[in-house]
Input
Amino acid sequence: MFVVALDLGVFHRRARIIGLREALSWTLVWIALALLFIICIYFLYEFNPAGWDMDTAQLSGREAALQYLVGYILEKSLSVDNIFVIALVFSSLSVPAAQQHRVLFWGILGAIVLRGIMILTGAALIAEFDWIVYVFGTILLYSAAKMLTLRQETVDVEEHIAVRLVRRFYPVTSGYRGKNFFVVEGGVKKVTPLFLALILVEASDVTFAVDSIPAIFAVTRDPFIVFTSNIFAILGLRSLFFVLAGMMDRFRYLRTSLVFLLAYIGVKMLLQHHYPIPNIISLAVIGGILTVGVLASLITSKNVRSQRG
Output
């Protein structure tokens, strides 16, 4: 939580336009920190120096470190699709570039709380009902099929259930009011389009958490590993957004690779009681799927640019 407070409360609290170089630097910083945390995971589970009253007997330091690494890569990969949707939200609402950082700032705070609740709920469900893994696996396969067939190029803001719910309680201003989410005009409290953007960002994270939380339970059932891998993936989401936001068209097949990623994890979850797939194999499969998606995107993008040139 110290890292969360430092990132959100000190380094990135002021709303401003984030340049590509700064965004790329912070993306590399968060990836480096996430990978360094593997060392902490290893020592915590191998030696338990804090004397935590937790069931670490079944997990060696090496096993825990591998689970965290696979979980982090999985969550980081799935967050890319969330970035695509956030970009569509900002485009549909014409969110000013200087205020996008502010929306993501508060959106990440909300995501941390919401995901913490969902992780605890998921862990409790699996502990109580072991058969729930089949439900989670089915959800992942359904999500993969839905992602494969759905071609969403815009976000219908006015018809979104979250926006309609907000409009039932507050009128919306005709335009942006600087960095404000709420304003009082003519004695009436109103929300600004910036608040609608925040609500849609939070709603998109909930939607993707429905996929990502069950997915990581296919890798590990340890709530601490699930939570920390999620947090590190989320903390890097804001900087990664500013890196990828202007290059979405260059990664056209990355979203397709996520379809196969979800499908694989869904199958892994459905088979884990009968034919468990080792996490070291999952790490290789996930890495292979992402590599193919990125390379195919870059090659296609290069060919398109060559033809135009």
About this structure: Residues 2-248 form one domain. The chain has a mean pLDDT of 81. The chain has one domain: 2-248.
